[in-house]
Fold:
Amino acid sequence: QWFAEDWHREIVRKWREAGVRMADEGSDEDEGPRPLEGLTVVVTGTLTGHTRDGAKEALQALGAKVAGSVSKKTAFVVVGDNPGSKYDKAMQLKVPVLDEDGF
Structure:
């Protein structure tokens, strides 16, 4: 049912292109690489290619913890259009910022 949504299939396609290996649910394979394991990430602004929930799910699938606010422990911030105060806080704390394309 999850794959009935076009944008869900698009996320999976992009993951595969990026080298993410999907294991069947319930299989004995490991989860595969989780390159963002242990990193805290914040998403802010309006994303054009993803919903906020879709971006959060993608980041969590790669091992990231998605937070609601920026702190000095934030690894990076994904910034869409009209980011507001989270972007300002990232700049103040010198936290790396990725635009949506970089994400």
